[in-house]
Structure formats: C-alpha cells, structure tokens
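User:
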Amino acid sequence: MKFIISIDTEGDNQWEFGSDLTVENIKYVPRFQELCEKFEIKPTYLVTSEVCDDQFAREIFSGYWQKGTAEIGAHLHLWTTPPFEDRDGLRFNDSNHGFAHELDHYILHDKIKHLTGQVESAFGKKPTSFRSGRYGFNENVASALLANGYVIDSSITPLLSWASYKGLPEGCGGPDFIDMTPFPFRYGAPGNQILEIPVTILATRFPLNRSGKLARYFTRNVDHSIVLKGFRKVFFRDQPLWFRPNPWMTIKHFNELLDEAVRIDLPCIVMMFHSSELMPGCSIYRPDSDSIEKLFNLLENFFNLLKQYNIASVTLTEAAKTVNL
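Assistant: Predicted structure:
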C-alpha cells in the first residue's frame, strides 16, 4: 500500500463573487512542506490558475518539484481559469461556481488546455495529475485530460453524491459518486480511458464495512429515512469516513481508515485537503492559530502512524506508474 497526500492549492477568497483573488495562504505552505519532508512524505499540490500567477508560489513549488520532494498537478476552477465568456456561470469569479462536466466540449477543452499551459510555464514541467474543482468529473473531462497529456485523475469521491449542489444556471448540478469504487480503475470510454485513483472514503464500521451494497444503500437513503437517521445518530455518525483532516477527526479515525484499507487490500490511500486550511482564518475548518496547531499535531501523529504501518509516500503520478490493473 502507498500513501498519497493531495492538496487542492487555490485562492483565499474564491467565494467572494466578483472580487480579485488573493493567495496569501500559499505563504503557509512551507511549514507544511517541512513537516512532510521530515517524514519523507511527498505531497501532490494540485494548483489553480490564480496560484500559477503568483510569484511566491512559482518560486516554492518549482523548487519542490525540481528537488523531487513534491509534485505539481492541476486543479480546475471554472470560475478562475480562462477563457471566460460574458454569460452567467462563465465570467471570472462568477457567483455560479460550475462543475467541469457541465461545460460543453470546446469550452472545457480550452480551459484545461489553458490551465495546463499555465502550470508548465509557471513551474517548468507539464502537469500529469489532476483534480476537478468541486469534484466535477465525467467522460468528457477524462477525454480532455487525455488530450492534454494527463495520466491520472483523482476527482472521484466514492460513497458521496454532489447531485444536490447547483453549478451552472442551466447545468445538471454535481456528480453522484455513491456507486463508485475506492480502488484505482480505468475511467472513460473504451480506448480513451484515464487512470482514476479516487479520494479515499470508506465505511469503517460493521456491518457497513462488510457489504458495499449495504454501505451504498445507507449513504443514498439515510437523509430520507427516519430509521436510517436514527442508526446514523447512534451507530454511524461519522460514516463513511473521508480521508481528510477535518477538525473533528482524531488519530483514532485515521487508524480505523488504515485498518480498513489494509483489510480490503487497497493499493493506494489518498488524503486531501485545501491549502487554505493551512492559514489561520482562511478556511471555516481552521478559524484561528490554535486550530492550525491542532491540524499540524494531527498530521504529525498520522505520519508517525504511517511509519508504524511501514506505508511509504508517493505522488499521484508516481502512483500511476506502479498501479497494476
């Protein structure tokens, strides 16, 4: 088993519609990178368009990538990635934050091509790993990635659905990934498939962890059933577990995730969070300096746990080279 830590590396204030974007949170990345290097952890920073334009970001991420201590991939936010159009949902930092799979073929390809060029120009190498903003992903996105030289995507969130989230005004809304596997697989039309390594989201409590069908049924129906809501409140409050350092997560939760990943022989475990979570007050998850210290303590304890399990770290593209399907 290999460990992948992926950071959605993006602006501070992307939900302040119509505003210029700032990237002050990037100044807090070096402390995180130092912790990773201490434990021989190699992050994959998936960067947005506005990060590519920042001089400090260009300096630090180019250095990490050249030294081989991190990888720089791409993270598509439709509302910050050119080209833009003067219509709802397609303007810069528009109030309608769309999903990539809602775009028509030509706009989608133009945006991914532009972002790919930005990353290469800013950091000196062409990106080969990708995550879609708001997890918007389908066969059209996969096709656009392959056309631009990507080898791996990590946009899918198994056991979760974003279908109730609105995107473009006339769009279909978010994707439904409840039925997706946590294992790596080839995604897309036959002959035009990209390797997918999903974000690790697992049911870790019996009986949900013993039956994928039961876990999917629970997740799909729990918000519509009084009985299932009762079970969630008493037994399954934290199920399924998402492999990310949310404020309520403890080392016990991460231990449960690792134990379950080992039990099912998952070849890769993928953690994710946002670069804004490294800066006090930049994310709702980390409102102050004390919450940042708790994050770093949790990460250090988890990295120590990886050592106990003898689980090595790889980047997304490194994982793509070793996965056997």
